[in-house]
């Protein structure tokens, strides 16, 4: 399963954009949805490419201005988070992909074997289960009933004391792919009332990957307030008892 397929599916399932913006596809024998908007597709594709560069990065630098040296570094990525936000940029949901135990394999040795690694068929079945969980996640979450447009952000959380390794403007004269994230978009900025649901976890023999979804404390507080308001509106005020009025006696 690629992050790209998962991100498109999340945007469709959580209705961040109109349904007619997406087309139905298949991945790992599972129905998925892909955006048809070129700019959105380019943004997602670029973000996923930058994530891949962070997972295992080959950094180039000149040594003594003579020789070009390549250093392969083990990835520093801890989590990839897709954050769903309201029009005030308040985080409502976080889809959290946690990544652990990335094995380092030399780029020049493509025939390197890894003991206990899954076969491609088994791996495909696990990735299929991830996608099935994503397509069904709507039934486990409170609807995103907010006024105004929803938006999303892709947040890369690194391991302690790590910095982004992807090539930046000093080397390739291109903009750096990452900028500092807003604290409330990250898992570290989570409200204490937030609720986390684990969707799927798998150990492939090369990388451990898990997927969880978190509803933010603010989203849950708003939902509770809406329920209280609805209950209050449905309660009828008590009727004041009225005594019957005796008819006036006619004059004799």
Describe the structure in your own words.
This protein is elongated. With 252 residues, it is an alpha+beta fold. Helix content is 27%, strand content 29%. β8 (195-203) and β9 form a beta hairpin. The protein has helices at 3-13, 38-55, 120-135, 169-172, 217-234; strands at 22-27, 30-35, 56-63, 67-74, 77-85, 91-100, 151-158, 195-203, 208-215. The chain has one domain (3-105, 118-234): HORMA domain (Cell Cycle, Spindle Assembly Checkpoint Protein, Chain A), CATH 3.30.900.10. A five-stranded antiparallel beta sheet has the order 7-5-6-9-8. InterPro entries: HORMA_dom, HORMA_dom_sf, Mad2-like. One of its GO terms (cellular component) is zeta DNA polymerase complex.
Write the layout of secondary structure elements.
Blueprint lengths: L2 H11 L8 E6 L2 E6 L2 H18 E8 L3 E8 L2 E9 L5 E10 L19 H16 L15 E8 L10 H4 L22 E9 L4 E8 L1 H18 L18
Antiparallel strand pairs: 1-2, 3-4, 5-6, 5-7, 6-9, 8-9
Largest sheet: 5 strands, antiparallel
Spatial order of strands in the largest sheet: 7-5-6-9-8
The residue-averaged pLDDT reads 73
CATH overall fold name: Cell Cycle, Spindle Assembly Checkpoint Protein, Chain A
Structural domains: how many: 1
**CATH class wording:** Alpha Beta
Protein name: HORMA domain-containing protein
Family: Belongs to the MAD2 family.
Biased composition (Low complexity): 235-245
Domain HORMA: 1-213
Keywords:
single chain; 252 residues; alpha+beta; Cell Cycle, Spindle Assembly Checkpoint Protein, Chain A; two-stranded antiparallel ribbon; 9 strands; 29% strand; elongated
